[in-house]
């Protein structure tokens, strides 16, 4: 078969057929992602043409971008009303692990995925001082944390990933990391974590159509990638 002889790009691999994108910034005009409704619709059409089944809108919520549940819900309803395609749309959020997140948890004001899963992130370069305790508090409140694009965190070592996995912290891969889109270190980590089977989910983390297309068309996938990505894309 093709993957024994050469690598393929994600677009040609067939993996996108029936795929679930767990992380995107496609919801327009709410954060640093897509700005216009027409751009959101164009990206969704592109994904639909490649067979993507579900897309989660996960706009940022953090102290610097204090989106409210009400505001995001209204904007999501506008997108759903305008979109006439085949992709199933869902709303959650990507929460920075900061004091605002802990307040929202205390107030039971969280946009979750199914099974009470909550997508969370930290700074790429530096973790909150009490980040491990914050994970414990999130779990104690009844949520299941999904740690966004874990391969991109420069402060995490191999032993940290092992500990996160043992403690039931679900990990999400940005598939662009496999292409080197976020640099060689993230690429190396992504392949290592994928081979270990640590990832539970995959996402585009799409902010711009041009970047999404570039990542989908990069030739990166070998036999091991296919086996593991087939599991986490569903």
In short:
With 234 residues, this protein is of the alpha/beta class. The protein is built from 10 helices and 11 strands. It has helices at 2-5, 10-13, 37-49, 69-82, 99-106, 131-140, 158-166, 184-196, 209-217, 223-232; strands spanning 8-9, 20-21, 54-57, 60-61, 88-91, 94-96, 117-121, 144-147, 170-174, 199-203, 219-221.
How does the overall form come out from the CA principal axes?
globular
Low-pLDDT ranges: 1-5
Count of helix runs: 10
Rounded average pLDDT: 94
Instruction: Describe the largest sheet.
Output: 6 strands, parallel
The beta-strand count equals: 11
**Multimerization status:** single chain
In terms of DSSP E residues, the strand content is 15-25%
N-to-C order of helices and strands: HEHEHEEHEEHEHEHEHEHEH
- SS-derived structural category: alpha/beta
Major β-sheet strand ordering? 4-6-7-8-9-10
List the defining traits of the structure above.
alpha/beta, 40% helix, 234 residues, single chain
Structural account:
The strands form 3 sheets. Strands 4-6-7-8-9-10 form a 6-stranded parallel beta sheet. A 3-stranded parallel beta sheet has the order 2-3-5, covered by helices on one side. The protein has a two-stranded antiparallel sheet with strand order 1-11. The radius of gyration is 17 Å and the shape is globular. The chain contains 10 helices and 11 strands. Helix 6 links the parallel strand 7 and strand 8. It is α/β, with parallel strands linked by helices and 234 residues long.
């Amino acid at each position: 078969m093709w993957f024994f002889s050469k690598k393929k790009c994600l677009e040609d691999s067939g993996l996108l057929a029936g795929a679930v994108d767990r992380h995107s910034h496609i919801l327009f005009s709410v954060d640093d992602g897509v700005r216009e409704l027409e751009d959101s619709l164009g990206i969704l059409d592109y994904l639909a043409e490649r067979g993507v089944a579900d897309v989660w809108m996960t706009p940022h919520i953090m102290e610097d971008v204090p989106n409210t549940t009400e505001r995001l819900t209204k904007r999501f309803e506008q997108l759903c009303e305008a979109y006439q395609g085949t992709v199933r749309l869902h709303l959650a959020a990507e929460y920075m692990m900061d004091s605002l997140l802990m307040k929202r948890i205390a107030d039971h004001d969280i946009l979750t995925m199914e099974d009470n899963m909550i997508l969370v992130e930290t700074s790429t370069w530096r973790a909150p001082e009490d980040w491990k305790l914050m994970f414990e508090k999130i779990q104690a409140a009844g949520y299941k944390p999904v740690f966004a694009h874990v391969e991109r965190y420069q402060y995490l070592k191999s032993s940290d990933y092992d500990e996160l996995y043992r403690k039931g912290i679900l990990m999400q891969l940005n598939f662009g990391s496999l292409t080197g889109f976020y640099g060689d270190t993230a690429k190396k980590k992504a392949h290592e974590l994928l081979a270990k089977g640590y990832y539970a989910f995959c996402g585009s983390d799409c902010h711009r159509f041009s970047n999404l297309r570039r990542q989908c068309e990069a030739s990166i996938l070998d036999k091991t990638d296919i086996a593991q990505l087939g599991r986490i894309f569903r």
